[in-house]
Amino acid sequence: MIFPYEIPLLLLLLITAAGAILVKDLMSAVLLLGSYSFFLALVWAGLGAVDVAFVEAVVGAGLGTVLFLLTLFGTAPKDTRLKRPPLSATTLVIFPLLGVLLLYAANDLPEFGNPNSPASVHISPTYLEQSYQDTHTMNVVTSVLMDYRSFDTMIETVVIFASGIACALLLRRHP
Amino acid sequence: MIRPHESAIVQALGYLIIPMVQIFGLYVLFFGQYGPGGGFVGGVILGTGMIISVLIFGHGASQSQISKKILHGDGVGMLIYAGVGGLCMIGGGEFLNYANLEIPGLETASRRSLGIVLTQIGVALDVAVTAVSIVFSLSAEEIIEDSING
Fold first, then answer.
1. How far apart are CA A109 and CA A136, in angstroms?
2. Taking the complete model, does pTM exceed 0.90, yes or no?
3. 3-state secondary structure chain B
4. Could you tell me if residue B14 is left (phi over 0), alpha (psi between -120 and 50 degrees) or otherwise beta?
5. Are B131 and A63 in contact (CB under 8 A)?
């Protein structure tokens, strides 16, 4: 089920993604990636995944763009001038084939919003029904992330912590 | 080192925007139980507020030692998160099973709600401090000098 307002959004997604790859200037590529994240956030919000849309808008469009820009300010112009080699014949054959394969496989995916799809019959109903009695938390996404799947979230926090440590170790010469 | 921005307009806007961003971050962090939001997004917004303040007022804006030391506490959020898990184990249950937090006068569901709030604060601290720490790493003076010289 595709809603009519999603088609222009998806087109804009394609245009910004292609633009970010094709544009010559790295600064423009960064800004195009930021707008790509905004459009993606709108798509998530349209599909009802508001939490994901929030994260995409804040992290992808906000923080990610700021970090990319700071990195660009730290580089000399000669590093950001792009030389793109012409596409090889293998690339031109393999990637369209891969796309066709993915489109072929997408036919077998369950329809969007289908109540009998495997994802919505396995354990999701239990979470949706039990979340409030179990945890007194109205947002089911939060209760799944922080309570039922708390260990996953803890390891994700470790990943973020490790990324910060790695940046500090690689980039700071004098601690 | 990031030096303070010279423009008075930017500084005045900073005084206006930074408190609003921080309050919005706290709101998102604690509203995560009732609507969209939560520890990760709230932490990123809090961190973004700190990044704005560093970009506008520079590294040396705050004289207090606490604010200088606290930005080096990357692991504090992790410690809070894992510490809540450890408290659950002390309470006699599994790791991160918030129902075993030993707080008298609370039923099981409220204990789990409290556990969610505490771990969200941990995630938010971790994410915010990591964001600021990455910005500090990226803006280290030596990188910029190196890339200009060679």
1. 34
2. no
3. CCCCCCCHHHHHHHHHHHHHHHHHHHHHHHHCCCCCCCHHHHHHHHHHHHHHHHHHHCCCCCCCHHHHHHCCCCCHHHHHHHHHHHHHHHCCCCCCCHHHCCCCCCCHHHHHHHHHHHHHHHHHHHHHHHHHHHHHHHCCHHHHHHHHHC
4. alpha
5. yes
Out of A134, A139, A167, name the one closest to residue B112 (CB): A134
Q: What is the rounded CA–CA span in Å between residue B10 and residue B56? A: 7
* DSSP of chain A: ---TTHHHHHHHHHHHHHHHHH-S-HHHHHHHHHHHHHHHHHHHHHTT-HHHHHHIIIIIIIIHHHHHHHHHHTS-HHHH---PPPPPHHHHHHHHHHHHHHHHHHTTSPPTT-TTSHHHHTTHHHHHHHHHHHH--S-HHHHIIIIITHHHHHHHHHHHHHHHHHHHHHH-S--
Q: Chain B neighbours among A 18-47 (CB < 8 Å)?
A: none
Task: Give the total residue count for chain A.
Answer: 175
The one-letter code for the residue type at A99 is G
Q: Looking at chain B, which residue has its C-alpha nearest residue A73?
A: B144
- pLDDT single digits (tens) A25-40: 888 899 999 999 999 9
B residues 69-108 closer than 8 Å to A (CB): 74-75, 77-78, 81-82, 85, 95-96, 98
Q: Tell me how far apart the alpha carbons of residues A58 and A34 are, in angstroms, rounded to a whole number.
A: 10
Q: Rounded to a whole number, what is the distance in Å from the CA of A28 to chain B's nearest CA? A: 20
Contacts of B126 in chain A (CB under 8 A): 157, 160-161
State pLDDT tens for residues B58-100.
776 666 676 666 666 778 888 899 998 888 888 888 888 888 8
What ipTM is given for this predicted complex? 0.82
